[in-house]
Amino acid sequence: MAEPLVLKMGGSLFERSEDIIKLLVSEDCRALIIPGGGIFADMARRCRVVSDDSAHWMAILGMEQFGWYLASFDIPTTDTLEVPKRLSILLPYRVLKNEDPLPHSWEVTSDTIAAWVAWKLHLDLVVLKHVDGIHSSGKLLESVDHPIPTDDVDPSFIPYVISKRVKALVVNGTHEERIISAVRRLPVKGTTIGF
Question: What is the CA radius of gyration of the chain?
């Protein structure tokens, strides 16, 4: 059985969620899933008159909504930070409200929250998104070892991962074989960050 990891499932993969969960179950993956905000956090983005604090907590509650959707595929949830013994989903509101470790800004999204969880638990991070990895100047990068401008992750993610020395990999979650390779720690098309 592979070592445990933190696995961020981007909200852009909402339509593929059930297939991804089935794949992770079939792999007997010991992962703590960090749900993205997706369509749920987008509602907070549309509420332009709310304060940064309100938008931050609304977006985190959006992550919880996606988490409960993922839980509907018979995956247990947790609201505590623990190294996973099996596939489970973090409902992040309580943990983040208690610790409040990150700035309240759209510069920090579920990407950086997942990196913070990986850092707290001393685990590797796999980020599943609807992109092949990190792009810069129109090119897919195999690795990133310093902050660069990109729209593929939130602006705080790469600096945070590098500064905290989190072992992170960004992979396209629409390709089953890439997900399998990533959770098995095999070579895979994507972008490694900071290592």
Answer: 15
Tens-digit pLDDT profile for residues 16-30: 999 999 999 999 999
Domains of the chain: 5-193 (3.40.1160.10)
> Using an 8 Å Cβ cutoff, are 102 and 57 in contact?
no
One-letter amino acid at 57 equals W
Question: pLDDT tens-digit profile of 21-74?
Answer: 999 999 999 999 999 988 787 777 777 767 889 889 989 999 999 999 999 999
Distance of alpha carbon 87 from its chain centroid, rounded? 14
Q: pTM surpassing 0.85?
A: yes
Which residues, other chains included, contact 40 with Cβ-Cβ below 8 Å and sequence gap of 6+?
A: 11, 61, 62, 63, 65, 66
Name the phi and psi angles at 110, rounded to 5: -60, -20
**174-186 pLDDT, tens digit each:** 999 999 999 999 9
- What's the CA gap between 176 and 19, in Å, rounded? 9
Q: Residue 144: helix, strand or coil by DSSP?
A: strand
**66 contact partners, CB below 8 Å, separation of at least 6:** 9, 11, 14, 35, 36, 37, 38, 40
